Amino acid sequence: MRNKKVWWVAAACVAILAASSTALGSSMIQNKRFQRTFVCVNMHNGLIKVISRRQHNRCATGWKRYRVSDLFGHGMRGVRGVAGAPGPAGPAGPQGPAGAAGANGAAGPAGAMGPIGPTGAQGAKGDQGAQGETGAQGETGAKGEAGAQGEPGAQGPQGIQGESGANGADGAKGADGAAGPAGAAGAAGPAGPAGPKGDTGAAGAAGPAGPTGPAGPKGDPGANGLSGVITVAGGAASGDKQFTVNCPANYFAISGGFSIQGSVTASYRSNASGDPAGTTSWTIKQSSGANLSGTVYVYCAPSS
Predict the structure, then answer these.
(1) Concatenated DSSP letters for the chain?
(2) When comparing pLDDT for 234 and 125, which is higher?
């Protein structure tokens, strides 16, 4: 008799729960997980309690386990309710930290040589320059040495002796005979040394300046000093707080830079191990900040 009364109470509770399943169906259908939940029904007083997986979905003695869907059924989805009015905008959040600086883009190719510009117009004729001042008279040169005296000419031959006259009476003294012909002239002596240089004459007045000639055509642009320069970014540890980035084969480093967190105490050309005697890499050294916390750049030119 007592068992029949207990079952009657349990059946009444189940009926009440089944009657409310229509009202709860729309909410339970939106959460199928709830429909898979187990409950325990007390066999003495009809009390219902939900059990969890931490209890291994088991009921204690005197309780009987049911699925929620067994008690409430699978209700129909209700009509979607009217959307509520949007709530007020929340306060603006704090500004986020600035992002890290992006890496430098690769150097663009060298531009083609531009065409030769047109010949410039002829410049205006310049004004005639002022006449220059008359130069000062030069000093008189030193007197040259006297030339050596020429040698005397050779003596001419002696004239023919006249015949003796007849021994006449001592007459009056005769007139003196005519003089013999002159001897041939001797050979000319060698030329004497040049006489002293004459005084320098006064400088003439400067002539007027000639007109300015026309401007020549514009020359072709010169070739670039360096061509084929590339940029390599990266960095690998080559020592304690020391970064190094390398040029590719057949290139040498011409400069470098960095984007590093913390202080940098050195930035120099090196080899791959950070030796400053090398020429194929770029190395930096940090004094603070996280190790390898940034990027090193090296600018490389072809070696041939």
Answers:
(1) -HHHHHHHHHHHHHHHHHHTHHHHHHHHHT-HHHHT-EEEEETTT--EEE--GGGTT-PPTTEEEEEHHHHH--PPPPPPPPPPPPPPPPPPPPPPPPPPPPPPPPPPPPPPPPPPPPPPPPPPPPPPPPPPPPPPPPPPPPPPPPPPPPPPPPPPPPPPPPPPPP-----SPPPPPPPPPPPPPPPPPPPPPPPPPPPPPPPPPPPPPPPPPPPPPPPPPPPPSS-S-EEEEE-EEEETTEEEEEPPTTEEEEEEEEEESS-EEEEEEE-TT--TT-SSEEEEEESSSSTT-EEEEEEEEE--
(2) 234
